[in-house]
Design a protein that fits this description.
single chain; mainly alpha; 4 helices; elongated; Orotate phosphoribosyltransferase
């Protein structure tokens, strides 16, 4: 009888959930990767672990919401205020990813504020 915890890409479930949130910040290295990578991480193991599924859902909800907010800011750049909106969105994304990752590392699920619920929990 094995009591070993399953590993997901070499990480335990809690660390993997943390990685889902932190991976959003990869857009600073390769633009667009911060949207694709968290979703790929979620989809890869969502059926194998409920915690991974929950963390992936809240992250995907935030990313889609962030995309909607970005489109609104893009339209608002015509009247200059959109540039400020992009700065605020960028700072919120960094802060939210860090808070969610810290909570995930503690085994807690944190729902991103201001995110629409496209994927039900």
């Amino acid at each position: 009888m094995s009591t070993e915890e399953p590993l997901y890409w070499g990480l335990n479930a809690r660390s993997y959930c943390t990685l889902i949130h932190v991976s959003q910040l990869s857009s600073f290295i390769i633009p667009g990767l911060g949207i694709i990578l968290p979703i790929v991480l979620w989809i890869a193991h969502k059926d194998q672990n409920e915690d991974i599924n929950q963390h992936g859902r809240v992250t995907a909800n935030w990313l889609i919401s962030l995309l909607i907010y970005s489109v609104i800011c893009f339209v608002l750049t015509l009247i200059i205020i959109g540039a400020l909106g992009f700065i605020v969105l960028g700072l919120m994304n960094i802060a939210f990813a860090i808070v969610a990752a810290v909570k995930a590392n503690k085994g807690e699920l944190w729902v991103y504020p201001l995110s629409f619920e496209f994927f039900k929990r």
